[in-house]
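User: Hey, quick favor. My workstation is busy. Could you predict this chain's structure for me?
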Amino acid sequence: HFLPPEGRRRASGTGHRAPCPRRLAGLVLMLAVSWTSIVHALEVGQILVADRGSNAVLAIDPTTGDQSILASGAPFVALSGLTFDRFRRVIYVTDHGDGMGQPAAIYRVDPESGVISPVSVGGDLVQPESLLVESSRQSLLVADGLPGRLIRVELASGAQSIVASPPSASGLLFAGGTNYYVTKTTGFAIQQVDLNDPLNPLTVGAAGNFQAPTGIGGPIAGLHYVAENSAGLLIEINLPGYNPAFPDANQTVVAQGGDIANPFGVFRENAESVVITDPGALGGAGAIIRYTPGTTSEEIVASGGSISEPRGIAVVGDQVGWVQRPDIIFTNP
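Assistant: No problem, here it is.
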C-alpha cells in the first residue's frame, strides 16, 4: 500500500481502492490508495490498534470495521503495546526497536495531527510490551519482557524506574489500588503484583491451558479473558478462584479454532464484549475479533487494509469512565 509521508498519516481505509487527493509542492495529485477518508478526532468506542506489520497505529470503527491510519512509518520499527490516555486524548505505544542501533522506546501519538514524539528511549527498555497510564496520570507503567520487569516511565521527563521484576512480563491490567495483573509468557502464569510489595507477587492463574499467555482484558461479569498466543486459545478465567491444588480449575477455553488462531492483545470493549488482536487469523492475514461471552459468539470486526500483524489494542474512552475498568473513576482536574 501507499503510505503518506511522516507526520501526515491520517488517511483511513477499508481495504477498497479509492482515489485520494494529495497536495505536494502546490500540485494536487490523485493517487489510488486503500484509504477513503481523513480522521480529525477520535470518537468514544473506536478501537485502537498497534500493527507491527504495517508499522502503523490504526483507529477502527467498531460497527463498520473501517480503518483510519493515525500514524505510521519512522520512527516505528517493531510496534507492540498500545494504550489510550483519555485525559490528554493521546496514544502511547511501545516499540521493540531493531536491535541494530535503534533502541526500544515508548512513543506518544497525537491522533489529530499524526505527530509521533518520543516519551522514553533505551535505558531499561529492552522488549516493552503492554503499558498503562497510572492513576496519578503522570506516569506510564510498562511490562518489559526481557529479562522481565515493570518499568515506571515519567511522562514529563521520560525518566525510568524499575518497580517490579516479574519474568517475561507481557500483558498488563489494572487490578485496583497498587495492584496489577501481569501475564508471563514463560512460567505459564498470571501474577498479581502489588507495587507496594513487589517482591511477593501472588499467582492467580497457572499451568492448565497456558503456554504463552499474552494479553489480558476484562472484567465482564467478574471474569477476565486471556489471549493464549502459542496454543491459539481465548481463555476465560476467574482470577480470585485460583487454587494451587487445582491450577486449571478456574480456566475455561471459550474460543479455539474458528476465527481464533494466535490471539495477542485483549481489551474490554464494553460490559458485553472484548476485542482481540490476532496476527494469525485468516491464514496469517491478521484480524481484529470481537468475542461476546453472553452469546459465546466470535465476530471479525476488521481485516485487510493496513491490518497485517496487529498486536496492542485499546478502546477510546471518555473522561467520565474508563472502558477497561468502568468501576474505577478518576476525577478530571
